[in-house]
Amino acid sequence: MTGTTGVPRLFDTQLLARRRKKAFAHHGTEGDFLLKEVATDMLDRLSIILRPFPLIAELGGHTGLLAQQLKNRQGTDYVLRLEQSSSLLGREDHGLLFDPEFLPLKPQSLNLLVSPLFLHWVNDLPGTLLQIRQSLAPDGLLLATLLGRESLRELREAFLIADSEISGGASPRVAPLPDLKDMGNLLQRAGFTLPVVDHDTLTVRYSSLFSLMQDLRRMGATNALTDRSRAFMRRDCLMRAAEIYQERFSDPDGRVRATFQILSLSGWAPDESQQKPLKPGSAKLSLASVLGDKSVKR
Predict the structure, then answer these.
(1) Nearest C-alpha neighbor of 223 from the set 121, 87, 117
(2) pTM of the predicted structure, to 2 decimals
(3) How much is the average pLDDT of 151-163?
């Protein structure tokens, strides 16, 4: 299926919005341990940038945890929350509803945009990054975290094998996620300067596959693929996946592991004040003079 921008609609973003809304309504912040983890990390990264960001937007923060912390940061005048459902916005929030493919932001209006664990759900990630860059004032900053390709690899493998054994085919059950190597190129294509991409791996242990799936429901992060099967999962397939998970990914105490790869992105809107790399051949010192090697001609 293709969206209005001509980009394939890998994710059903309306279904995602409904599931996040339902998860927040039923479970509150019970499933927000990943959000807490990345919010702490993002605040640590911001703490070494000794400058104010008066106008800030949080994109798809779900619980508003990061936005709330940013309100207390010195030099902050206004924090805008962008969510897909009004039920995710608190009474004290400055909020706007948005479509992931069309951000309701004026050009060069923000000093900082943060997005904790949302951008991996976007169908047109290059287009969204371009819109974010255009919304930033010169020397404005994007800081984002998203799940990387190694996330939930154990769950993906268990279901792939179980589906093949039980039904003779594979149904997409775990979303494909961005690769670390591609994100730097995407930031540059969107026009960001000084792009930085790194990653961290968080391993969470559960009593079984079923407790992992319960946590994913609390996060509103269950299967939202457009091409997902609409039929209920067969019990025999689910039980076989649980057996495979236990056989392949359990520790000696019987608990199973789940991998979450967190990609961290940062990039700046271009500005004349920023440092620029030297042009080839513009160095003032020769290699020989630095190394003291007289055999190299100057």
Answers:
(1) 121
(2) 0.82
(3) 91
